[in-house]
Amino acid sequence: xxxxxxxxxxxxxxxxxxxxxxxxxxxxxxxxxxxxxxxxxxxxxxxxxxxxxxxxxxxxxxxxxxxxxxxxxxxxxxxxxxxxxxxxxxxxxxxxxxxxxxxxxxxxxxxxxxxxxxxxxxxxxxxxxxxxxxxxxxxxxxxxxxxxxxxxxxxxxxxxxxxxxxxxxxxxxxxxxxxxxxxxxxxxxxxxxxxxxxxxxxxxxxxxxxxxxxxxxxxxxxxxxxxxxxxxxxxxxxxxxxxxxxxxxxxxxxxxxxxxxxxxxxxxxxxxxxxxxxxxxxxxxxxxxxxxxxxxxxxxxxxxxxxxxxxxxxxxxxxxxxxxxxxxxxxxxxxxxxxxxxxxxxxxxxxxxxxxxxxxxxxxxxxxxxxxxxxxxxxxxxxxxxxxxxxxxxxxxxxxxxx
Length: 403
Hints:
The chain is mainly alpha-helical. It contains 14 helices and 4 strands.
């Protein structure tokens, strides 16, 4: 037999209390609605007379709808773009730490998908009504347009661009000269050898192993990158990069030029001093009349920092030598893990939080013996939250400790 739903009859005093509550609830709801209405009209400068309120009441709805649209758009962009970029970062990590064609294919596909989604958000962002948006909202919308709008609209171009970038990474990560990889072998030669010919051979040899293969790829890379920038409303890729500083490109260029002009006299004195010291060490016959320094003598494959030749150019030869950090690290048996733990302790000591456990589980801190990887040190923020990693073929050297 089916059960019959019954309604319990309230005692008379309770019925009276319920009837008293009903007008009270209605009054409270009405008061809240009026308060919201008055706040909204106050934003429009409408708090004058009841007639003014009536005159402006219909303009409130578009204003509130506009704000809701911007809020909803930014919330969707945050959610969807973060998910797509996380997938692209994860696929890019797998490729950079294992340079296989299969991983390149997956990395390229994820990058193309993220770019396509970003472009769609940028196109929608341009059509938003920002009349009543806050300064913070306007800035977020502009960043979406600048960062994601400058991408290739043609899917074939986007796929080619991702493929070109991946192939250049593979060349860089797997190239060898005379059977020697860049890291750690050739890097160590440039840092520690004091034989002019050995340095020259390593410097030129590695470039011969990479440059001819990368040259056509890099040319195509620049063509596609500039095309993407122009599609996004920039003059070229350089203009797009400069937009990241959120000041006019010409103003940023002026700032850099002013800084360069300020340090140039000091740099020229340092350059002249180092050149003279190196000429004394290797012989003046290796130094032409152009007043330049042969790049392979500066202790680094890219001549980007000169700390590895400190023993050749240190002034005041009678002064005590600086501590040999590399020797100390090796004498004390420092491993890659221990070096990164030491670096972490420094940042924790100045107030930063410790690294998450996943950092130690997912980072690549040493060069694997069983596959090609991109050893060039880089920090990865995979998901914009807690999944942070380092990719580095760490060696116990002062240079790597500083990196």
